[in-house]
Amino acid sequence: MNAITQVFDAFMDMLSALDLYATPIIGAMPPHNGIAAQITTGATDTTYLDKGIEIGLSIVLNGKHESQQTVCDTLNLIHQSLTQTKQYPKNNDFQIVDIRTDSFPNYIGREDNEYLYGSAFRIRAFIKQKGITTNG
Question: In terms of C-beta density within 10 A (0-12 exposed, 13-18 middle, 19 or more buried), how is residue 38 classed?
Answer without folding.
Answer: middle
